[in-house]
């Protein structure tokens, strides 16, 4: 795998020191991605002393690698949330997810973050089963959630995204896409300006629970009134009861060579982001320098797929045969934190350790919300976090040793379903 296109186009960012020695603060946060930074910003604005520990550099995890598609909702269907919680609570979660998208705009403006935001997103259908699914979803969104989206029949969609693979799409003008690493770095700059102390190359090796929990690293420790665990698919062994409820799944992205504005715009004429609704989905969008960023090819075994570049090229030309012969300049990947139900898993362990995980590949907007909801709870207003806490989260079956092979088997079935009908 190469460096990502995001890394080569990242804005200059300050390096942060590694933690040395013993510090105290109000809230200690593990993880320098969107969740940790969102939490840090709201708490610092409320006057709390916050320290954030990142094992690599800011945005090193999923937040700096993602497809950049910022969408309402969560990783699972809204219908699943309604079935578990009832319509009233499901509506709350839905409205808050839209707030997550709006929070991106608010923070871009408040902190002057340049991250190439573009409006528009489409979930597209490849087969009649998908059309039925998407039309049912549109009806549910309009009838139960007051959220207007458009249905584009095949021809209308193909006049904007000229791929014969797609036969219709749900188009949402309020979702969109951005440069995820530059957004994350912008939030880090804002957090630092608000007084958050950030330490990079400071992997947390242990959490001591108790009245004043402690995060320990190889060369230091932070004691705090509250700890927030925001390590996503990359954290292991700090809170075992959380580890068993998510599965790291690899997903990959390729960036073409620059296509030039005219050729790029011929692929997505309105510059929106696009994702199909297969289980093993393809997702793509244009970059600010007129490349196609094309994502897909999940790896459930956590091993990087062999000949990734060739696979990504094949998937891309299956959508756009006109790109045959176009080179992929960059190919990279990262892990998403899938929960068994794909619903968000956010909550509290004991009185003073908070966590958010289980974004299930749908975290760009939801992470901002997670940080806000955790910051509220730490300040004594846990009503919103309590609604998320009602969601049941079962551990992956099979324990540490067997859950990966079992997931691989389950996913093989879903892939077969994608292929057959
Ligand atoms: C390739 C890819 C494509 C994606 N595409 C999309 C998309 O298009 N739309 C969308 O909505 N979502 C997408 N996602 C998901 C989305 O990026 C994530 O849900 C979101 O970024 C999660 O943010 P986070 O802050 O929770 O985790 P992360 O960004 O992963 O941050 C966690 C951080 O914690 C650090 N950490 C872990 N353990 C420790 C430790 N022990 N000590 C200190 N630090 C630690 C890690 O180094 C990491 O930087 C994608 C993800 C990937 C990988």
**Which stretches are poorly predicted, pLDDT < 50 over at least 5 residues?**
none
What's the CATH topology label?
FAD/NAD(P)-binding domain
Helix-strand category: alpha/beta
Beta-strand content: 25-35%
Provide mean pLDDT, rounded: 94
First CA to last CA: what distance? 32 Å
The total domain count is 1
Name of the CATH superfamily? FAD/NAD(P)-binding domain
Number of helices: 13
Overall geometric form: globular
Rg result: 21 Å
* CATH class call: Alpha Beta
Please provide the ordered H/E string of secondary-structure elements. HEHEEHHEHEHEHEEEEHEHEEEHEEEHHH
3D structure, described in words:
By secondary structure, the protein is of the alpha/beta class. It has a single domain (5-389), classed as FAD/NAD(P)-binding domain (3-Layer(bba) Sandwich), CATH 3.50.50.60. It is built from 13 helices and 17 strands. The protein has helices at residues 5-8, 34-45, 78-85, 87-110, 128-145, 154-158, 180-193, 240-243, 261-267, 308-319, 364-378, 383-389, 399-420, and strands spanning 21-30, 50-53, 69-70, 118-125, 150-153, 168-177, 197-199, 204-208, 214-217, 220-229, 246-256, 273-276, 283-286, 292-299, 328-339, 345-349, 353-357. The strands form 2 sheets. Strands 3, 4, 5, 6, 11, 12, 13, 14 and 15 form a 9-stranded mixed sheet that branches. Strands 1, 2, 7, 8, 9, 10, 16 and 17 form an 8-stranded mixed sheet that branches. The mean pLDDT is 94. Flavin-adenine dinucleotide binds next to helix 2, strand 11, strand 15 and helix 11.
């Amino acid at each position: 795998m190469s460096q990502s296109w995001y890394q080569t186009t990242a804005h200059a960012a300050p390096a942060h020191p590694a933690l040395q020695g013993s510090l105290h603060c109000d809230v200690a946060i593990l993880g320098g991605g969107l969740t940790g930074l969102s939490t840090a910003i709201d708490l610092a604005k409320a006057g709390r002393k916050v320290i954030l520990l990142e094992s690599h550099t800011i945005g090193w995890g999923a937040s700096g690698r993602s497809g950049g598609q910022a969408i309402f909702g969560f990783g699972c269907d809204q219908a699943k949330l309604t079935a578990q919680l009832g319509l009233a609570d499901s509506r709350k979660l839905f409205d808050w997810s839209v707030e997550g998208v709006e929070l991106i705009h608010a923070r871009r403006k408040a902190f002057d973050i340049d991250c190439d935001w573009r409006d528009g997103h489409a979930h597209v259908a490849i087969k009649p089963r998908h059309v039925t699914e998407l039309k049912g979803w549109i009806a549910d969104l309009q009838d139960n959630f007051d959220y207007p989206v458009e249905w584009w029949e095949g021809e209308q969609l193909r006049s904007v995204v000229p791929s014969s693979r797609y036969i219709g799409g749900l188009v949402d003008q309020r979702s969109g896409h951005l440069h995820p690493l530059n957004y994350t770095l912008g939030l880090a700059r804002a957090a630092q300006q608000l007084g958050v102390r950030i330490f990079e190359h400071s992997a947390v090796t242990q959490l001591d629970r108790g009245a004043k929990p402690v995060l320990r690293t190889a060369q230091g420790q932070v004691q705090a009134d509250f700890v927030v665990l925001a390590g996503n698919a990359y954290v292991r062994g700090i809170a075992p009861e959380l580890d068993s409820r998510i599965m790291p799944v690899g997903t990959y992205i390729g960036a073409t060579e620059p296509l030039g504005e005219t050729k790029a715009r011929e692929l997505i004429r309105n510059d929106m982001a696009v994702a199909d609704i297969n289980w093993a989905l393809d997702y793509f969008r244009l970059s600010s320098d007129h490349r196609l960023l094309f994502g897909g090819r999940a790896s459930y075994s956590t091993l990087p797929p062999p000949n990734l570049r060739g696979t990504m090229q094949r998937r891309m030309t299956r959508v756009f045969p006109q790109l045959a012969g176009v080179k992929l300049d960059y190919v990279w990947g990262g892990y998403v934190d899938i929960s068994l139900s794909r619903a968000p898993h956010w909550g509290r362990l004991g009185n003073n350790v908070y966590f958010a995980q289980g974004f299930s590949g749908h975290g760009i907007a939801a992470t901002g919300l997670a940080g806000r909801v955790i910051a509220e709870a730490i300040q004594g207003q846990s009503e919103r976090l309590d609604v998320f806490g009602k969601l049941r989260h079962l551990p992956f079956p099979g324990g540490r040793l067997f859950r990966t092979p079992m997931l691989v088997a389950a996913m093989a079935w879903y892939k077969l379903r994608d292929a057959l009908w």
